[in-house]
């Protein structure tokens, strides 16, 4: 069983890899490919649930998807993302929501969009045996406050992110996602922290990289400029779906090899 200790041990020696997944078959593909961690991200809101932000995603939705990902995974560390307003308000419900991902769904850790309000929670959860991945820089659950722009671009903002990074490490976070921040800031944070940094749109100097699976395999309509499309799954699905329709309409499918004739029914049916 993978542990956060394995992830920490890899930092600084080998690049750490993480992709999102939201269902068992996709998780199995990511796991078989040897990716270190699978994030059941609240990016599921945009990626698979049809919303235009992560805000509507519920604890039930993340829990259901986390269970599916866990069942499809053998080796990778599964991290469940805590959705908007499921933490940060009162500690009791945050602990219940986080605990549910491990206790009921089998996740190995949770990720929390971090801020001054999550330092204590990170410490509480870590002490209780719930490993916490912190997340700083662009935190999409704050879209109504900050939009979707790069963070940490001024000296003051960069200082604040560095300070919060240290506070979350001190509180017991086992790693830190840095989203959409300048590469030089991500590099400094990576140097100053002992725990691994996992970047997305944060340049090449973090200990690891994470992408949303839809962006990485080419499944969505849009992906951010800092992402890279490594495949054309959407093109392949379109091709397969069109081929199905055409072959049913032309009578080519189902063919004899897809059908069964029962001898006993010969002459009767
Ligand atoms: O929800 C998500 O997929 C994320 C990653 C982009 C880090 O938070
Ligand atoms: Na997220």
Automatic annotation (TrEMBL):
<feature type="binding site">
    <location>
        <position position="111"/>
    </location>
    <ligand>
        <name>3-methyl-2-oxobutanoate</name>
    </ligand>
</feature>
<keyword id="KW-0460">Magnesium</keyword>
<feature type="region of interest" description="Disordered">
    <location>
        <begin position="249"/>
        <end position="269"/>
    </location>
</feature>
<comment type="similarity">
    <text>Belongs to the PanB family.</text>
</comment>
<feature type="binding site">
    <location>
        <position position="81"/>
    </location>
    <ligand>
        <name>Mg(2+)</name>
    </ligand>
</feature>
<comment type="pathway">
    <text>Cofactor biosynthesis; coenzyme A biosynthesis.</text>
</comment>
<keyword id="KW-0963">Cytoplasm</keyword>
<dbReference type="GO" id="GO:0003864">
    <property type="term" value="F:3-methyl-2-oxobutanoate hydroxymethyltransferase activity"/>
</dbReference>
<comment type="function">
    <text>Catalyzes the reversible reaction in which hydroxymethyl group from 5,10-methylenetetrahydrofolate is transferred onto alpha-ketoisovalerate to form ketopantoate.</text>
</comment>
<comment type="pathway">
    <text>Cofactor biosynthesis; (R)-pantothenate biosynthesis; (R)-pantoate from 3-methyl-2-oxobutanoate: step 1/2.</text>
</comment>
<dbReference type="GO" id="GO:0005737">
    <property type="term" value="C:cytoplasm"/>
</dbReference>
<dbReference type="GO" id="GO:0015940">
    <property type="term" value="P:pantothenate biosynthetic process"/>
</dbReference>
<dbReference type="InterPro" id="IPR015813">
    <property type="entry name" value="Pyrv/PenolPyrv_kinase-like_dom"/>
</dbReference>
<feature type="binding site">
    <location>
        <position position="81"/>
    </location>
    <ligand>
        <name>3-methyl-2-oxobutanoate</name>
    </ligand>
</feature>
<feature type="binding site">
    <location>
        <position position="42"/>
    </location>
    <ligand>
        <name>Mg(2+)</name>
    </ligand>
</feature>
<protein>
    <recommendedName>
        <fullName>3-methyl-2-oxobutanoate hydroxymethyltransferase</fullName>
        <ecNumber>2.1.2.11</ecNumber>
    </recommendedName>
</protein>
<dbReference type="GO" id="GO:0000287">
    <property type="term" value="F:magnesium ion binding"/>
</dbReference>
<comment type="subunit">
    <text>Homodecamer; pentamer of dimers.</text>
</comment>
<dbReference type="InterPro" id="IPR003700">
    <property type="entry name" value="Pantoate_hydroxy_MeTrfase"/>
</dbReference>
<keyword id="KW-0808">Transferase</keyword>
<dbReference type="Pfam" id="PF02548">
    <property type="entry name" value="Pantoate_transf"/>
</dbReference>
<keyword id="KW-0479">Metal-binding</keyword>
<feature type="active site" description="Proton acceptor">
    <location>
        <position position="179"/>
    </location>
</feature>
<feature type="binding site">
    <location>
        <position position="113"/>
    </location>
    <ligand>
        <name>Mg(2+)</name>
    </ligand>
</feature>
<keyword id="KW-0173">Coenzyme A biosynthesis</keyword>
<dbReference type="GO" id="GO:0008168">
    <property type="term" value="F:methyltransferase activity"/>
</dbReference>
<dbReference type="GO" id="GO:0015937">
    <property type="term" value="P:coenzyme A biosynthetic process"/>
</dbReference>
<keyword id="KW-0489">Methyltransferase</keyword>
<dbReference type="InterPro" id="IPR040442">
    <property type="entry name" value="Pyrv_kinase-like_dom_sf"/>
</dbReference>
<feature type="binding site">
    <location>
        <begin position="42"/>
        <end position="43"/>
    </location>
    <ligand>
        <name>3-methyl-2-oxobutanoate</name>
    </ligand>
</feature>
<dbReference type="GO" id="GO:0032259">
    <property type="term" value="P:methylation"/>
</dbReference>
